[in-house]
Amino acid sequence: MLISLYHPINDFRDLNNENIALPILSTDKIKDKINSMFPKITWSIEGEHVFFGCAPCEEKNTMEIWIMEKPFFSVKVTAMVEDVVEIAKKLNMTAIDMQKGKIVYGQQK
Questions:
Q1: What is d(CA 77, CA 92) in angstroms, rounded to the nearest whole number?
Q2: Cβ contacts of residue 89 below 8 Å, gap of 6+?
Q3: CB under 8 Å to 20, separation ≥6 — which residues?
Q4: Contact criterion met (CB below 8 Å) for 36 and 16
Q5: What is the CA radius of gyration of the chain?
Q6: d(Cα 90, Cα 83) in Å, to the nearest integer?
Q7: Best CA proximity match to 74, nearest among 56, 57, 50
Q8: Omega cis (within 30) before 23
Q9: DSSP three-state, residue 32
Q10: Angle, alpha carbons 69-85-87 (nearest 5°)
Q11: What does the pLDDT look like over 18-74, one tens digit per residue?
Q12: What one-character DSSP code corresponds to residue 12?
């Protein structure tokens, strides 16, 4: 999961509504930046304030990206960790591996 934070955190358990910030970029600019890195991604609208992007990364792997504007803004990425970190850097967001509960890139105490 990629999010923007007001203050650094230790791990995902430190997330709260007061610390989650809106990203500097709009949803359209986020999609544009992701597409500049992974041009095969195609986007669809999956509901109110929800955007889904998908692209084949390799023969066996597929990249999936969910941009959710509500209840708080987040970008969920299913991909190799290297790709997640690359996207987080490009968007200036914090990347959290929610399965492990660890920050893989970004603001950390």
A1: 15
A2: 105
A3: 3, 4, 5, 6, 72, 73
A4: no
A5: 13
A6: 11
A7: 50
A8: no
A9: helix
A10: 50
A11: 888 888 899 999 999 999 999 989 999 998 889 999 987 555 567 899 999 887 788
A12: G
